[in-house]
Amino acid sequence: MSANPPSLTDLGAAVKARRHELGLTQDQMAARSGLHQRWISNVETGKRNLSYSNLCRMLPVLDLSLSELIARAEAAAAERGAGPDVRTQRWPRQRWALQPSVPNPPRASF
Q1: Cβ(76)–Cβ(7) below 8 Å
Q2: Rounded CA gap, 45 and 10, in Å?
Q3: pTM (2 d.p.)
Q4: CATH fold for the domain made of 6-81
Protein backbone atom coordinates (compact mmCIF):
# COMPACT_ATOMS: atom_id res chain seq x y z
CA MET A 1 0.00 0.00 0.00
CA SER A 2 1.38 3.40 -0.91
CA ALA A 3 1.77 6.30 1.48
CA ASN A 4 -0.69 9.16 1.42
CA PRO A 5 0.40 12.09 -0.74
CA PRO A 6 1.71 14.92 1.45
CA SER A 7 -0.70 17.38 -0.17
CA LEU A 8 -3.70 15.34 1.04
CA THR A 9 -2.18 15.02 4.50
CA ASP A 10 -1.63 18.79 4.66
CA LEU A 11 -5.17 19.54 3.54
CA GLY A 12 -6.54 17.06 6.06
CA ALA A 13 -4.44 18.61 8.82
CA ALA A 14 -5.87 22.03 7.94
CA VAL A 15 -9.43 20.69 8.11
CA LYS A 16 -8.77 19.00 11.45
CA ALA A 17 -7.07 22.04 12.96
CA ARG A 18 -9.96 24.30 11.98
CA ARG A 19 -12.51 21.81 13.31
CA HIS A 20 -10.65 21.79 16.63
CA GLU A 21 -10.52 25.61 16.66
CA LEU A 22 -14.30 25.64 16.36
CA GLY A 23 -14.67 22.99 19.07
CA LEU A 24 -16.51 20.58 16.79
CA THR A 25 -16.39 16.80 16.86
CA GLN A 26 -16.33 14.82 13.64
CA ASP A 27 -19.91 13.75 14.33
CA GLN A 28 -21.04 17.37 14.70
CA MET A 29 -19.24 18.35 11.51
CA ALA A 30 -20.79 15.39 9.70
CA ALA A 31 -24.28 16.35 10.83
CA ARG A 32 -23.83 19.98 9.77
CA SER A 33 -22.24 19.22 6.40
CA GLY A 34 -24.26 16.17 5.42
CA LEU A 35 -21.09 14.13 5.00
CA HIS A 36 -20.35 10.86 6.77
CA GLN A 37 -18.20 10.96 9.92
CA ARG A 38 -15.92 8.18 8.63
CA TRP A 39 -15.34 10.10 5.40
CA ILE A 40 -14.36 13.21 7.39
CA SER A 41 -11.96 11.08 9.42
CA ASN A 42 -10.39 9.75 6.22
CA VAL A 43 -10.03 13.31 4.86
CA GLU A 44 -8.33 14.46 8.05
CA THR A 45 -5.83 11.61 7.88
CA GLY A 46 -5.10 12.16 4.18
CA LYS A 47 -6.72 8.93 3.03
CA ARG A 48 -9.44 10.62 0.96
CA ASN A 49 -9.27 13.27 -1.70
CA LEU A 50 -11.79 16.08 -1.44
CA SER A 51 -13.96 16.84 -4.44
CA TYR A 52 -15.01 20.41 -5.09
CA SER A 53 -18.64 19.59 -4.29
CA ASN A 54 -17.71 18.07 -0.92
CA LEU A 55 -15.44 21.02 -0.18
CA CYS A 56 -18.41 23.31 -0.84
CA ARG A 57 -20.41 21.33 1.72
CA MET A 58 -17.60 21.41 4.28
CA LEU A 59 -16.41 25.04 4.00
CA PRO A 60 -19.51 26.71 5.51
CA VAL A 61 -19.20 24.45 8.55
CA LEU A 62 -15.53 25.40 8.89
CA ASP A 63 -16.44 29.07 8.31
CA LEU A 64 -13.61 29.39 5.78
CA SER A 65 -13.30 30.26 2.12
CA LEU A 66 -11.59 27.81 -0.21
CA SER A 67 -8.56 30.09 -0.49
CA GLU A 68 -8.27 30.31 3.30
CA LEU A 69 -8.32 26.51 3.63
CA ILE A 70 -5.70 26.12 0.91
CA ALA A 71 -3.52 28.75 2.60
CA ARG A 72 -3.73 26.77 5.84
CA ALA A 73 -2.74 23.58 3.99
CA GLU A 74 0.22 25.39 2.43
CA ALA A 75 1.25 26.63 5.88
CA ALA A 76 1.15 23.02 7.13
CA ALA A 77 3.35 22.01 4.19
CA ALA A 78 5.82 24.78 5.01
CA GLU A 79 5.94 23.61 8.64
CA ARG A 80 6.97 20.13 7.57
CA GLY A 81 9.64 21.61 5.32
CA ALA A 82 8.06 21.21 1.89
CA GLY A 83 9.41 24.60 0.84
CA PRO A 84 7.82 28.01 0.46
CA ASP A 85 5.78 27.20 -2.65
CA VAL A 86 4.28 23.72 -2.72
CA ARG A 87 2.18 24.53 -5.80
CA THR A 88 5.20 23.95 -8.03
CA GLN A 89 6.12 20.67 -6.36
CA ARG A 90 6.02 17.81 -8.83
CA TRP A 91 5.73 14.17 -7.99
CA PRO A 92 8.06 11.74 -9.73
CA ARG A 93 6.30 9.48 -12.16
CA GLN A 94 6.28 5.86 -11.32
CA ARG A 95 8.36 3.96 -13.80
CA TRP A 96 7.24 0.49 -14.67
CA ALA A 97 9.70 -2.11 -15.76
CA LEU A 98 9.26 -2.95 -19.41
CA GLN A 99 11.11 -6.20 -19.00
CA PRO A 100 9.18 -9.47 -19.07
CA SER A 101 8.54 -11.04 -15.68
CA VAL A 102 9.69 -14.43 -16.99
CA PRO A 103 12.97 -14.67 -18.86
CA ASN A 104 12.73 -15.58 -22.51
CA PRO A 105 12.85 -19.35 -23.00
CA PRO A 106 15.78 -20.63 -24.99
CA ARG A 107 15.10 -20.92 -28.70
CA ALA A 108 15.10 -24.31 -30.26
CA SER A 109 17.64 -24.74 -32.97
CA PHE A 110 16.82 -26.94 -35.93
Answers
A1: no
A2: 9
A3: 0.70
A4: 434 Repressor (Amino-terminal Domain) (1.10.260)
